Amino acid sequence: MLTPADDQNLSILSIPGLSIDLEDRDGFIQLAAQGHLRGVCTPFLNRINSRLREEKPVLINDEQVVASTWLPPIPSKPFKRLLYAETQIALGKYVPETVSFEVTRQCRCNCKHCVVSGGEGDLDIDTIKRAIDDVLDMGAVVIVFTEGDPLLRNDIIELIDYVDKDRAIVNMYSPGTDMTPEIASELKNVGLNNLLVSIYSTTPAKHDAVRGLDGAYEKATRAIGYGLDAGLLVTMCTHASPTNMEEISALYELATDLGVHELSLWESVPKKSGDPIISDQDRKTILEMYHMINSTTQGPRLFANTYFEGEMLGCMAGQRWMHVCVEGSVKPCPYIPFSYGNIQTDTVKTIWKRMRKDPHFKGQRSSCLMQEPDYLQLVSRIPEDASIPYPFNEID
What we know:
single chain; 9-stranded mixed sheet
């Protein structure tokens, strides 16, 4: 088990006015700050420390603790960068800690909930690499490759390999339709941190219907096994919606049976006014499940954005999260249908500054913007025949 030496603490971060050490306190690893900037980062450290005390990690060994597949390991250089980013945020300088990239339109599935952007074609690899460099320079610590199926992009291995693992971890979503043991081993060799595979029902036919592809369930579960056999962290993902709340417990049991490291549970997001969203009682149920599961030692950890983006950090869109679409437009997150620029014509830093001027991304918000009626009214002003994402500055 990872533990600092009895006679010394493990230094995690040291900058003028602030040092953060990893300590062993009664058998629990904890982060402790010193220096005149200590008060600035105390709230964030308290949140991390409470999770380390109260929740099981995804993985722990002699060298690192993986609290969640959505966070860099502790200790690590990307985690050090996360602490520095959170210190900047506490001082009012917001950092896109997580940046997701749509890398291809190609996908064998036909999901109605797909959020891949409109237009045609995929970004060339040099443009994506340039954007990766830019967001790493801005402080990103989690890079996510997604939409439609990254495995169908022939240079995905090169893209994953390109990301500097001393600066960020790399996660990748895939429906799993084209995973093989050989590809899983390649992903491990080039430093993929976490393979994310979504499963929407414990009933294969229901999952296949969501994916719009016969045999999708079998392919997804097989891909999870290949990832685990290759030594990757593997997360099973699913959505919590008004129509499947009764199946969430069974989905966790499936995740346990499959042996994944974490079940990642995301609230479903409406695309327009009138689309169903989960209720406050549903959120209460999710939070109760979250605390119950993570207080035990058995089974995979449960990640729930109901907690992470609700009680812990608030909505990350446009504050800690930025999403790059397949044609280069940039959104605050995958679900908001507005763009604030395009990496083919603007620098990422310029786009981020433009996004940060939008008052919708000021202050902590415990709910998703796309679940708020007033914001959905703004979304409804997008012309019916417009391509999504729509330029925010063109809204009447």
